[in-house]
């Protein structure tokens, strides 16, 4: 860190505030899954409508995430973190207080408009305050604490049983309170950033690169294989885990709400600790593609065990947890190796655009399949088409990971031959 950079104490305080804000944001995102059954039984929502509540989060970001990156560059990380946290809070309140489906969908849409740009702004904040070292560690730590928000959301039926006993709305009001806490962290970070800027105007300079369509022409095949894996893998993980897993565990495997939420939560709890560890291991070994292929292959195995066998859900959940820890720990560092540093922002932006489109589509397709098959506690076999869809998509992701491994290995051999 140069002499004009903020002190380490200030930088870690910013990291703590950003992590706290991410915790609340992740909690709100995953708040639909624990109340999915209540929304269906108490409000008459179909599975397609429930899927839409999460799909609508991703739909605007197919385009707006590119705009969000430009706004972060234009107005600064602190200001955009505050603004988008406020948008997320309004969306969470609208979701919890709306009397009908249209209002809840509008709330989730508003939350989605703010949340992804919020994510970009928090990454920009950490890059800004950790210039010269520990950028990756600070981002990994903040991400892990954010994932604790998802774990907490899944555990909320156990932690707040009285709220869930009162119906669908009290749990969503708790989520709105988490969004308010997230906004509070963003407000404190914005205030601190203003103090730092006033003390040293050179302390915080944005380093982001603008998106340029012409940069896409320079990406090689390996990058596009990685993008395909990103879309398929995240579509299965987030559409299943965040929207349908708890309901599926209740209806198809006979778990009660608290047990189903706890079972689903361990995916994120494992990732909190394992993701930094896997990242450290991959850096030490220096072989990213094989680790990525292994992590991607675990997902279809887990889906098959859940859908086709009577194996304990602990086994399949553990496999999903390892996959969810390993793939993100390798995917983003590998992306930085497949494209030049000057185009890294463009590459990540495009991956996030495609990822949001895939997640939205997977939510809608899964909900439609469940409705068409009449999936319910009385008809657990109705979930078979959804599980087949998720299984095929996860197999596709594993295939792209394998092709990427072979491509990366061939590329390395060519580099060795050229050097010889």
Structural summary, described in words:
The protein is mostly helical. It has 2 domains: 1-208, MFS general substrate transporter like domains (Growth Hormone, Chain: A, Up-down Bundle); 211-420, Growth Hormone, Chain: A. Helix content is 82%, strand content 0%. It has helices at residues 8-29, 36-43, 47-58, 61-75, 77-97, 101-129, 135-159, 161-165, 169-199, 221-253, 257-285, 288-308, 313-338, 344-373, 384-419. Helix 3 packs antiparallel against helix 14, helix 5 (77-97) packs antiparallel against helix 9 (169-199) and helix 7 runs antiparallel to helix 11. The longest helix is centred in the C-terminal third of the chain and has 36 residues, at 384-419. The protein is globular and about 65 Å long. Residues 202-208 and 412-420 have low confidence and may be disordered.
Q: Tell the overall outline.
A: globular
Taking all residues together, what is the mean pLDDT? Answer: 82
Oligomeric form: single chain
Measured distance between first and last alpha carbons: 38 Å
Give me the CATH superfamily of the largest domain: MFS general substrate transporter like domains
How many strands?
A: 0
Global structural class = mainly alpha
Which consecutive residue ranges, at least 5 long each, have pLDDT under 50?
A: 202-208, 412-420
Number of DSSP helical runs: 15
Q: What's the structural domain tally?
A: 2
The largest β sheet comes out as: none
Q: Look up the CATH topology of the largest domain.
A: Growth Hormone, Chain: A
CATH class of the largest domain: Mainly Alpha
Helical proportion, percent range: over 70%
Just name the CATH architecture of the largest domain. Up-down Bundle
- Rg, please? 21 Å
Strand content: under 5%
Order of helices and strands: HHHHHHHHHHHHHHH
């Amino acid at each position: 860190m140069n002499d004009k950079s903020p002190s380490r104490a200030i930088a870690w305080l910013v990291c703590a505030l950003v992590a706290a804000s991410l915790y609340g944001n992740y909690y709100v995102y995953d708040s639909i899954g624990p109340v999915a059954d209540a929304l269906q039984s108490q409000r008459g929502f179909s599975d397609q409508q429930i899927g839409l509540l999460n799909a609508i989060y991703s739909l605007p970001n197919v385009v707006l995430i590119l705009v969000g990156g430009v706004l972060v560059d234009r107005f600064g990380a602190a200001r955009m973190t505050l603004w988008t946290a406020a948008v997320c809070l309004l969306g969470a309140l609208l979701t919890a207080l709306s009397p009908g489906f249209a209002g809840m969908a509008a709330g989730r849409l508003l939350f989605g408009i703010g949340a992804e740009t919020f994510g970009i702004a928090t990454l920009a904040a950490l890059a800004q305050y950790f210039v010269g070292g520990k950028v990756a560690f600070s981002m990994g730590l903040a991400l892990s604490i954010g994932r604790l928000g998802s774990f907490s959301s899944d555990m909320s039926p156990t932690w707040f049983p009285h709220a869930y006993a009162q119906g669908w709305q009290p749990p969503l009001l708790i989520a709105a309170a988490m969004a308010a806490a997230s906004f509070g962290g963003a407000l404190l970070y914005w205030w601190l950033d203003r103090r730092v800027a006033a003390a040293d105007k050179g302390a915080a300079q944005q380093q982001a690169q603008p998106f340029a369509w012409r940069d896409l022409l320079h990406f090689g095949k390996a990058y596009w294989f990685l993008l395909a894996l990103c879309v398929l893998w995240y579509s299965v993980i987030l559409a299943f885990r965040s929207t349908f897993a708890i309901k599926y565990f209740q209806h198809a495997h006979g778990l009660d709400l608290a047990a189903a939420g706890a079972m689903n939560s361990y995916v994120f709890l494992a990732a909190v600790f394992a993701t930094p560890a896997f990242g450290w291991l991959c850096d030490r070994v220096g072989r990213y593609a094989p680790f990525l292929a292994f992590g991607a292959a675990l997902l279809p195995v887990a889906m098959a065990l859940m859908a086709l066998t009577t194996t304990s859900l602990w086994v399949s959940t553990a496999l999903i947890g390892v996959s969810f820890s390993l793939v993100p720990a390798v995917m983003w560092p590998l992306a930085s190796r497949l494209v030049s540093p000057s185009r890294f922002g463009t590459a990540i932006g495009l991956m996030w655009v495609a990822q949001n489109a895939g997640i939205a589509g997977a939510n809608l397709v899964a909900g439609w399949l469940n409705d068409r098959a009449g999936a319910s506690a009385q008809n657990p076999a109705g979930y078979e088409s959804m599980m087949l869809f998720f299984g095929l998509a996860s197999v596709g992701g594993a295939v792209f990971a394998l092709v990427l491994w072979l491509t990366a290995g061939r590329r390395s051999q060519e580099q060795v031959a050229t050097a010889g």
